[in-house]
UniProtKB/TrEMBL annotation:
The chain crosses the membrane at residues 12-33, 294-313. It comes from Paenibacillus spongiae. Gene3D superfamilies: Homeodomain-like (1.10.10.60). This is Helix-turn-helix domain-containing protein. Residues 645-744 form the HTH araC/xylS-type domain. Keywords: DNA-binding, Membrane, Transcription, Transcription regulation, Transmembrane, Transmembrane helix.
Length: 753
């Protein structure tokens, strides 16, 4: 090595410094990051499939909600629809609302057992022509349709199948049938939803817009519901069963001699299986592209670096000797090689860096201290303070200042590194639109900013809302901002900080994802509010009665009172804690303890941990629903034995009363009308109205057979208002008029009597 010229020694050294890191990157970092990219692609693919599954399940659950709404619509009850065709025409708009508000649904039909028509938003179809003429299924005859509708006891989805209809834009549909009411032992009808295959396929397109892959949905029996594309392998025997056995997540499998990457997700709601399959070369296309580019980049860096090192060595070597001589003269020492000079320069550099770090740390500390002093309103002499602030890097070029405080939902639950990244991103978005500084020396999880704007009025609030929207979109979080009033005097900035804190506390009423201005809440606060004490006391009564629906309405009513009355924030908190106290008292009365155990009750102590009244209302509704269910169960066990007979006796004793009503009957038994209807239906299999009408008709038949009473007297005797209405209902029930019935049956029985 001593015989090698110094030039080549340094050339070899520099080349080694270039090649060794490149080798390390190629062998370690390169492979590591390629594996990370591959995992990220796999995870993204899986997440997108989970989003498709959530969207599809949500649409199906929405069909259940629509079915429940139809079941509770008075205009769509069997009684109303069979009165006359005019009621069916009136009901059309209700169906049109469902199809126009939900793009997932093409058609909605209502089928009522033992009625000759099928109802929809576009028309009323004769049941005998519905399948054979208007909607001709390839594999669903009218006889099978009638059988399926009359025996339907749970929701059933007919898979994508061929159909011929002038009313549809697609020639294949998915048909979803839901019994009415849902989960009933004896449904009176069903809702039929038609979903065009092309609509379902659009929901499956997200993963394969520019690829040869496919997305399929299988039911719990391994049968195909719908697929994004038709392919030959879908018709292979055993394909769906083998696909159904794939593990959740991502795996590989050969199909028709070609290797595919499969991603699988299973729905917890319906036990369906969502599967995407993508040719492995397309699945790994991005990884291969990154791998190729990385290798090319490493090669280019090696070649270009070697050339530059060689060229720079020629330029730098000759001045090096002169530098050694100069350094020796300047420092009074003899330097025979670069190591001695490098050691001396290194010491000087370390001392300089140490002094620089100390200066930077000191400047940062001064910067933060001055911002805290400014935001807390402890500035006494503005001009000297702003002069020192300018030296610390704090300069305001705009005349108006205000404080903005940002609160992120559950920010303390994020990992430390994620919090740091989030704060940096938020500050970047703020500075893109405002002249502002983040103040970090205050306690608590709230992020504080001092913001400068051009004038007292203007569009700064619109810009601030845009910043909040950008933060939500970037990090997928819920965030609320509270803003104080604007000030020109920096000594008044402490008041703006207090105002911003007060505004931020109003997220209890406003909720998250809002910009709350102190000027707005100051004008909105109403001191003439009404405290909803009677509504809170009514909650206890409704819980003890087991009336879930009325209880939910009461909770929402209290919430509406809070939102509409603009009452002070401290009084809102009092109302919230009164509601919590009501729930805790009733739970202790029923269970004898506040411990929820392993049951479906939320932890009662978690009731006090809420940021918005909407969150509190949601938890209260869950607990109230469970408490009511427990009470109803206890009442049902103690009263079900004799309650049925009491209800039947009441109707038999009061059927002739023209003012007969369910509410009067409910008052007689000291229960709510909705609970009475539900109990009567469960214990007798009929509604109160159906049973009452049936009993009145039977009494009318008896009087027609055994007496010579005038028809008007019979009508009044059984509780009807007018004769024409009675005649129409009698003929609908028995296919003959009362007079014809008396002629057929009355004379013989009357003579024998």
């Amino acid at each position: 090595m001593k015989k090698i010229p110094l030039f080549y020694k340094y050339l070899i050294s520099y080349l080694a410094l270039l090649i060794i890191p490149l080798m390390l990157i190629g062998l370690l970092v390169y492979n590591h990051y390629v594996a990370i990219l591959q995992d990220e692609i796999t995870s993204n693919h899986q997440r997108m499939l989970e989003q498709i599954q959530d969207s599809f399940d949500t649409e199906i659950m929405e069909l259940h909600k629509i079915s429940a709404e139809i079941a509770f619509k008075p205009e769509l009850t069997p009684y109303q629809l069979k009165q006359n065709m005019y009621n069916a025409v009136k009901a059309k708009n209700l169906f049109l609302n469902y199809t126009s508000a939900n793009a997932f649904i093409k058609e909605v039909f209502l089928y009522i057992k033992d009625q000759p028509y099928i109802y929809s938003g576009s028309s009323t179809y004769p049941a005998s022509l519905f399948i054979d003429t208007f909607y001709r299924y390839e594999d669903w005859t009218f006889e099978q349709f009638t059988k399926d509708m009359n025996t339907l006891s749970r929701p059933v989805l007919r898979h994508s199948e061929a159909i011929t209809s002038e009313r549809l834009t697609d020639d294949r549909v998915l048909t979803y049938m839901v019994p009415l009411p849902l989960n009933s032992v004896s449904p009176y009808g069903s809702v039929i939803f038609m979903i065009e295959e092309q609509t379902a396929r659009k929901m499956l397109q997200g993963l394969h817009e520019n690829s040869d892959g496919n997305t399929i949905i299988l039911d719990d029996r391994g049968e195909l519901i719908v697929s994004l594309r038709d392919a030959a392998y879908l018709d292979q025997p055993g394909f769906y069963q083998s696909a159904l056995q794939l593990p959740s997540g991502t795996s590989t499998k050969q199909v028709d001699g070609k290797e595919y990457a499969f991603s699988t997700v299973r729905s917890n709601e319906f036990n369906w299986t969502y599967i995407t399959m993508l040719p492995i070369e397309q699945f790994m296309e991005r990884v291969d592209e990154v791998r190729t580019r990385a290798l090319l980049s490493l090669g280019m860096v090696l070649v270009i670096g070697s050339v530059l090192i060689y060229a720079l060595m020629h330029v730098s070597y000759h001045p090096l000797r002169r530098f050694l001589l100069f350094a020796g003269k300047q420092w009074g020492e003899s330097y025979r090689n670069l190591n001695d000079v490098t050691h001396a320069v290194h010491k000087i550099t370390e001392e300089k860096q140490s002094m620089g770090r100390a200066l930077i740390d000191s400047r940062l500390a001064v910067h933060e201290h001055m911002l805290v002093t400014l935001i807390t309103g402890r500035v006494t002499d503005p001009e000297p303070f702003m002069e020192k602030a300018g030296e610390a890097g704090i300069r305001f070029t705009k005349p108006w200042l205000l404080v903005v405080r940002l609160a992120v939902r559950d920010m303390e639950s994020f990992p430390g590194q994620q919090q740091s990244d989030m704060l940096r991103g938020m500050e970047r978005l703020m500075r893109d639109r405002f002249e502002c500084y983040r103040v970090v020396g205050l306690e608590g999880p709230v992020v504080n900013y001092i913001v400068a704007i051009d004038s007292e009025e203007g569009d700064w609030a619109i810009e601030m809302k845009a910043v909040l929207g950008g933060i939500r979109e970037l990090y997928g979080i819920d965030i609320t901002a509270g803003a104080g009033n604007r000030r020109q005097d920096i000594r008044q900035l402490g008041k703006s900080f207090i105002e911003a804190s007060t505004a931020l506390d109003f997220r209890l009423l406003k909720g998250y994802n809002e910009l709350i201005l102190y000027s707005d809440i100051a004008m909105q606060t109403n001191l003439g509010y009404t405290y909803p004490r009677q509504a809170i006391e009514a909650m206890e009564v409704l819980i003890r009665q087991g009336d879930t629906e009325s209880l939910k309405k009461a909770v929402r009513g209290i919430l509406g009172t809070i939102e509409s009355s603009a009452m002070p924030l401290h009084m809102v908190r009092c109302i919230c804690y009164d509601m919590i106290n009501c729930i805790i008292k009733e739970m202790y009365r029923i269970k004898g303890t506040l411990d929820a155990g392993k049951g479906p009750y939320p932890d009662v102590f978690s009731l006090t941990k809420f940021d918005t009244i909407q969150e509190l209302a949601a938890v209260i509704e869950v607990m109230c629903e469970r408490l009511c269910a427990d009470i109803v169960q206890a009442q049902a066990e103690s009263k079900s034995a004799g309650q049925k007979q009491e209800m039947l006796v009441y109707i038999q004793n009061n059927y002739h009363d023209q003012q007969f009503s369910v509410q009067n009957m409910a008052d007689r038994f000291s229960i709510s009308a909705s609970y009475l209807k539900r109990q009567f239906k469960e214990q007798t299999g009929k509604t109160i109205t159906d049973f009452l009408n049936h009993y009145r008709m039977e009494q009318a038949k008896h009087l027609l057979r055994t007496t010579d009473m005038k028809l008007k007297d019979i009508v009044q005797r059984i509780g009807y208002f007018d004769v024409p209405s009675f005649i129409r209902k009698f003929k609908q029930a028995f296919q003959v008029t009362p007079g014809e019935y008396r002629k057929l049956y009355g004379s013989n029985e009357h003579d024998s009597a």
